[in-house]
Amino acid sequence: MKYNNVEFDTYFKNYPDKNGYFGKYGGSYVTPELARAMKEIAEAYETVCKSPDFIAELRRIRKEFQGRPTPVSYLKRLSASLGTGVHLYAKREDLNHTGAHKLNHCMGEALLAKYMGKKKVIAETGAGQHGVALATAAAYFGLECDIYMGSVDIKKQAPNVARMKVLGARVVEVTEGLATLKEAVDAAFAAYCREYKDAIYCIGSVVGPHPFPMMVRDFQSIVGIEAREQFIEMTGALPDAVVACVGGGSNSMGIFAGFLNDPVEIYGVEPLGRGEKMGDHAASLKYGEEGIMHGFNSIMLKDENGEPSPVYSVASGLDYPSSGPEHAFLHDIGRVKYDVVGDEETIDAFYTLSRMEGIIPAIESSHAVAYGIKLAKAMGKGSVLINLSGRGDKDMDYIIEKYGIR
Length: 406
Prior knowledge:
Elements: E1 2-3, E2 6-7, H1 11-14, E3 21-22, E4 25-26, H2 32-48, H3 52-66, E5 72-74, H4 76-81, E6 85-92, H5 103-116, E7 120-125, H6 129-141, E8 144-150, H7 151-156, H8 158-166, E9 170-174, H9 181-195, E10 199-201, H10 212-235, E11 241-245, H11 250-256, E12 265-273, H12 284-287, E13 289-293, E14 296-300, H13 325-333, E15 337-342, H14 343-357, H15 363-379, E16 381-388, H16 396-403
Parallel strand pairs: 6-16, 7-8, 7-10, 8-9, 11-12, 11-16, 12-15
Antiparallel strand pairs: 1-2, 3-4, 5-6, 13-14
């Protein structure tokens, strides 16, 4: 299958290229000293990812520790309520250990750190799921762990902050700027620049300098590989559409990877937040332009000075002013359609799924649920597979305080 002269049967062999580019997006825009550290990580990954011992250990961890494969669930009552001929399904990453997809790449990155002889893992987190997952991986492998988190998100995600601390991680509060995900990334990068000889920066999404967009995608692709096989086994066919939320974009690249070479419509859902005004949303692919931040070239939201714009989303894990370079590439060639969902639709979907299916989704995942419902109503018939990237335990206090019980 081909889109704009991109052959998808050989896609993963060709993208990214040897310099970490997906078309014009990606690369590694870092200092010479940090470039050496990135090269060390890239070379180590290229070596161990083909090692039978590394692969066997990762498979064992996924099965015995993470509880993979996670199931695909048919959303029977929700589907019936739509009054159309569309059937909704969910890939249940909320049932992955720690409650989200993040552990898929965190266990891989921590295992890589052990192979490289590193003593510490460093990361940023927004919604806290990446922080919890990395703290879990660090505890599993006996590594030190520093998690940088904006003070705004610390208040919104108190349960996850407590979990990180219980697991033995040091949670470092970031108070600069808007004190959310971008500032947490800034602080984590600065710490890594000081400690790269003994530590590895475990980026929480398909962003950052090469090799992280590739490496995180590869670790997350288990989601799409499983989902494709499970869906065919359940229904005898491929889904008509696949839907996932997009911030940096790790959960979405994970499930998209399983279907890029299939005749399936793929939708990435960005947060429209409070509306289209700059600072009220975090929909970089819809409203942004090409730009470099955090060591990679992609599509980003910019202010009047060309700097990363302030962003907002009700979901702490989506309020980032750029998106992974592979998403920017798939956006430009038209293989994936990117659209937006606002806060109110998202919260409605949160309660709808909870009450109709007994599944409380993360606010991030609720964006995909909201869009899946909207898409199903427009389609009229067929099937939609939604990536339920995480569970909503972490969001309960915040939602009840801000929106009440509906």
